[in-house]
């Protein structure tokens, strides 16, 4: 006999869904200052501002991807044929954000290294003014998204975009001040390399986490062998097999397992005990558990995967 337990996946709300308003605010702020930096950058021929404005483009695109993924998930989850909805769109958005960040950080590093041979003249005053405004904007966006970054991989992708741009604004601000005060042109490429090296490892961590979910690996916080042992210790459970745990999207972890019971066991009691254990000890509310007798369990062993 089989039994599914927990909240319906389509009816729930992913962790990032709680932060839509903040994402919209961050998107609006980022888009406004992206235009400002690019306009002033091209007007003054400031490569530093153009570079930071281009980085802010990836920031705005990243936040836009996060918003699009949430809206897609909400709308698509209403379709009866999509039993898991489109919650994975949020994970794909996080992966796309990581790719964008890799590209932007790589570009900054390559461009900065190229400038060491002949550092361009960068006007300090306009760079300082616009970089200061951009820094303030990024601080606001950073504050808006910081809380959600711990709950949602999708919001974390947007948060890392803003963090990278915030660091970029600080870098432009510092290099602009150094150039204005000393005329030392190498400040700009040195800061560019520092920004790229700061962003790349954090981007790799985001990409790794997104791929971990997409490949349906068990959540890193869980010890699957320990979970199997705990289920096997339940009264009247003889064996636990076909145990699978995976993450649908941030805040939505799902499990399935087959439990072989003794001949005199009460299936309803075993099922209830197993559900309670998974919810209490492992914070898994949605679990599909199949209760089997020893004879029916033999058929599972004939499976090749």
From TrEMBL:
The chain crosses the membrane at residues 23-42, 54-73, 85-110, 122-145, 157-180, 186-204. Keywords: Ion transport, Membrane, Transmembrane, Transmembrane helix, Transport. Residues 23-214 form the Cation efflux protein transmembrane domain. Pfam families: Cation_efflux, ZT_dimer. It is a multi-pass membrane protein. InterPro entries: Cation_efflux, Cation_efflux_CTD, Cation_efflux_CTD_sf, Cation_efflux_TM, Cation_efflux_TMD_sf, CDF/SLC30A. One of its GO terms (molecular function) is zinc ion transmembrane transporter activity. The keyword Phosphoprotein does not apply. Residues 219-292 form the Cation efflux protein cytoplasmic domain. GO terms for cellular component: plasma membrane. Its main location: membrane. SUPFAM superfamilies: Cation efflux protein cytoplasmic domain-like, Cation efflux protein transmembrane domain-like. It is found in: Membrane. Belongs to the cation diffusion facilitator (CDF) transporter (TC 2.A.4) family. SLC30A subfamily. This is Cobalt-zinc-cadmium efflux system protein. It comes from Herbihabitans rhizosphaerae.
């Amino acid at each position: 006999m089989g039994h599914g337990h927990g909240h319906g996946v389509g009816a729930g709300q992913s962790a990032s869904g709680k932060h839509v308003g903040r994402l919209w605010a961050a998107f609006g702020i980022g888009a406004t200052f992206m235009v400002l930096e690019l306009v002033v950058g091209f007007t003054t021929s400031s490569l530093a501002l153009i570079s930071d404005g281009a980085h802010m483009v990836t920031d705005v695109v990243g936040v836009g991807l996060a918003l699009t993924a949430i809206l897609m998930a909400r709308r698509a989850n209403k379709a009866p044929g999509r039993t898991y909805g489109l919650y994975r769109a949020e994970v794909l958005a996080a992966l796309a954000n990581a790719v964008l960040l890799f590209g932007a950080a790589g570009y900054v590093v390559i461009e900065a290294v190229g400038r060491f041979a002949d550092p361009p003249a960068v006007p300090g005053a306009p760079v300082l003014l616009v970089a200061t405004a951009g820094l303030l904007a990024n601080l606001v966006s950073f504050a808006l998204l910081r809380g959600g970054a711990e709950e949602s991989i999708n919001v974390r992708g947007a948060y890392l975009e803003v963090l990278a741009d915030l660091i970029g604004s600080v870098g432009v601000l510092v290099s602009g001040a150094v150039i204005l005060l000393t005329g030392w042109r190498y400040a700009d490429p040195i800061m560019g390399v520092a920004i790229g090296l700061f962003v790349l490892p954090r981007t790799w961590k985001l990409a790794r986490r997104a791929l971990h979910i997409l490949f349906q690996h068990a959540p890193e916080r869980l010890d699957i062998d320990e979970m199997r042992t705990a289920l096997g210790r339940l009264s009247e459970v003889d064996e636990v097999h076909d145990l699978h745990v995976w993450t649908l999207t941030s805040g939505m972890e799902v499990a399935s397992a087959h439990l072989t019971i003794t001949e005199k066991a009460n299936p309803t009691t075993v099922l209830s005990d197993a559900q309670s254990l998974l919810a209490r000890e492992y914070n898994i509310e949605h679990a599909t558990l199949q209760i089997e007798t020893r004879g029916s369990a033999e058929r599972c062993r004939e499976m090749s995967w």
